[in-house]
Write a structure and sequence with these properties.
- With 506 residues, this protein is of the alpha/beta class.
Length: 506
Amino acid sequence: MREDAAPALVQTPVDTEDRLRRAAEPVLEKARSDVDGFPAVLLLADRTARVLDTRHTDALIGDAIADLGITPGVLVEEEQVGTNGLGTTLETGQGVHIRGTEHYMRVFDPFSCFGQPIVHPVTGRIEGVVNIGCHAGAEHPLLPSLARHLAQDIEDRLRQDSPLAQRRLLAAFQAAARLRGRAVVVLGPGLVLANPAALDLLQPADHPALQAYAGTLGSAHERTHRLTLSSGRPVRLTFTTIDGTDGVLVDIVPQRGSRRGRARADASGQWPLLVVGEPGSGRTTEARRAAGPVPTVLDATAVARRGEAAWAATLGTLLEEDGPAVVVENIEFLSERLTMLLAKSLPGTRRRVVLTSTPGDHLVGMHAPLVGVCGARQELVPLRRRRHEIPRLAEEMLAETSAFGRVRLTAETLRVLAAQSWPGNLTELRRTVLGLAQIRTAGDILPSDLPASHRDRSPASPFRQAEREVIIAAIEAANGNRREAARALGVSRSTLYNRMRALRIH
């Protein structure tokens, strides 16, 4: 059955410095001039079916395409708009001719399309697709040949665009892969090369983890990390920069044993234990794990509801009696009086006590007495600083849903998830994954299924991430007053607003 409704197109940002777009621009402009006088539209899309460029030889056909919403930045995957000259070309990996009524959506019936994939001449990977559209029934017999020539010209320009860097990446990979039994991967801009030994070890969720680790290399020439793969097998990863390129060589060395399912060692050592972490980072889970079976939980946020006297009485009763461990949540909400009361009571209690808190100056200020009596402190790392774990965590969260087995997160979706900043940490990630499982009840969960706020495919550089955190901290310290935050940062208010927009700080 064909669709009568207008397409619900998803708009995404377009990188004006995109390598494919840069290579195709002169080719498309020359083609537009060559076919001037014949009503046609030239479209360019990347490997995700995102439109990068549109050009037309006739204002009427150009306006008609624009009225349908086909503009730079929209996604036209088959998953969203059905059979079309861009998405179908990417799905089939070969040239297509979609005649008017062969489109899935009837709004495209007035057009016929000739799509041709653009294959990178070095990697053999499909980089995108070029499409020529015209009025249905007015197809020129030379249009299929023109589409093929356009794709070939763009491929030639891709070869010329970065030949030395691509050759260096390929040479580094070939040299490393010659060693028998060595599992190696080369990661470069828009490029992933892996030998059979690496492919045997890696699963789709592992690739975004490698890319997340590679993003932490910075100015270091070499760095080693340890990672537990999706299969549960621990490996040692050695990342080495490849001179003259933006790529890295990854050596993957399997380690003995498996850490999956193994209980972690008790990190407390001594009591009381202080667990510090941002909201959503798993403080409660970690505190209860450390406390042991069936702990008694007392939340400092309840003081406002119960009153200080009642809350203090409950606390005193708990700490004076024998029993299971006590978890005191959110000590950042305790008043100075309750802080001193708890700090004096902890050394004499016979129970194990775990305190949880958000990070911040209050730990060296009003709540410093509590920090001082703790025998150990455990800092939970925010999710944005352990991006390599996000693919595995997302898959584990999906496995907890009723949709598990009917849907799966694609490797590209996992990469996009790993690129997000996750200010809400594990809580936000879990909410997003559960939402995806409700939207997509069968098949692949694609990047286009993600909420609009979580579709950014470009991972933030360490510098941009650090800048983002500094700005957020300044705004929080100023209690949301952006004028004061700008003054503290030594910038104008307009500069602060511009950086907030650029860094997606809401």
